[in-house]
Amino acid sequence: MNTTSVDPARPRGAGDRPAASRAGLSRERIVAVALEIADAEGLDAVSMRRVAAMLGVGTMTLYTHVQDKEALLELMLDALTSEHLLADTGPDWRTGLTRIARLTRQSLLRHPWALALGLRPALGPNKLRHIEQSLAVASGLTTDPAAQRTIVHAVDDLVVGCAMRELAARAIEADVPRPLCGLRRRIDAEPTLRELLHSGEFPHLARMLAGDAPFASERFEQALTWLLDGIERTYRPDSPTA
Hints:
Tetracycline Repressor, domain 2; Arc Repressor Mutant, subunit A
């Protein structure tokens, strides 16, 4: 007869869990669960303990696949960057950069936490593929590697800046009652600001607020068009579209 007893007060560790719960564990599964947590609850909710609990394994089990939380965050960012890769960049440099910019913006808006990680100098296979694809597209405009890098950085800066502004606006509107959302409504709700607006000191602002505000996507598309027009005029001044 087996007389071995289990203390019910002792937490179950990785060694107590069924082997089946760890059999299919992989780095990819760990990263996928971490991404789910970040998307649902934000980056602060991601921890090795939380990911392990979601996977049904002990926390220490994760360390056989991922070095630590910092490594996990870098893997998350690289996995996310796979969304920025295009199967077809199109027939020319302008189409390619436009498609890359739109795809990257959409990804950043789907995963707001990624902007904080994007400031890290981390590199992974998908990040390298994204850089290579972007440079290859820019090479259709100029053969100068330094110029290609500058072009790619300019487009990336525009995408990140627009995404940050749009996400910030979303956060503000989430915390402010709907009737007060938007610059005009917020000014109208503050008597002092409303009086200033109509004092004559801010004629350009008053005229702007009197019109319809463009959607964030429209502002992005216009800014991207202006940027690409300027790039084309720089490297192809004789182009009919420049």
